Amino acid sequence: MPAEKHREATLDDAAIQRRLEDADIRVNPERLQILGRLMSQTGQACTAQELYPRGVEESNAAAVSRVYRTLHLLEKKRVIERRVRQVRGRPVFTYIYGEESASSRIRFQCRSCGASVVADDIQLREQVAKVGADQGLPVASKEDIVVWIACNRCSASAPD
């Protein structure tokens, strides 16, 4: 009986494959595995390290880079959401699948190098949306709000 209960709780590959196809993403075993792990923990954030394929050592740079490329693609296609939080003064990125991943986000993006970070602050998003609406530029509910900036690295290398 316990094995049957566990089988019901796990996602089948067909559901994960449909989600990838709906987002117009080519299906491969690694994408199925990564999205499957995120979908099985809907609403819970995971770090990229937690999503490495089983049995892969961190020293395998090719496998690590494939995981990050897959996460970037899933984020770009709005299947998952990347969140940033500070841990001991350093940013830690987590990824989440679920209803929350469909809402719009505030993204700070460097004009020079294109680096970006998503602000995980609902109050900030609401305030920016209110200011936009007050000025006659309402924000669509699924549209990202982009704040163009110059990152520290580009600011430091810019001529005075």
Provide an overview of this structure.
- With 160 residues, the chain is an alpha+beta fold.
- It starts with a helix and ends with a helix.
- It has 6 helices and 6 strands; from the N terminus they run αααβαββββαβα.
- The chain has helices at 2-9, 13-22, 29-40, 61-76, 122-134, 152-157, and strands at residues 46-47, 80-87, 90-97, 106-110, 116-119, 145-149.
- The strands form 2 sheets. The chain has a 3-stranded antiparallel sheet. Strands 5-4-6 form a 3-stranded mixed sheet.
Architecture blueprint of SSEs:
Blueprint lengths: L1 H8 L3 H10 L6 H12 L5 E2 L13 H16 L3 E8 L2 E8 L8 E5 L5 E4 L2 H13 L10 E5 L2 H6 L3
Outline of the structure:
The protein is built from six helices and six strands.
Quick one: how many beta strands? Answer: 6
Please report which band the strand proportion falls in: under 5%, 5-15%, 15-25%, 25-35%, 35-45% or over 45%: 15-25%
Q: Nearest-angstrom radius of gyration?
A: 18 Å
Largest sheet: 3 strands, antiparallel
Q: What is the averaged pLDDT score?
A: 77
Q: Structural class per helix/strand content? A: alpha+beta
Which geometry do the CA atoms define? globular
* Separation, N- and C-terminal Cα atoms: 71 Å
* Uncertain spans: 1-10
Kindly state the percentage of residues in helix.
Answer: 40-55%
What is the strand arrangement across the widest sheet? 1-3-2
Individual helix count: 6
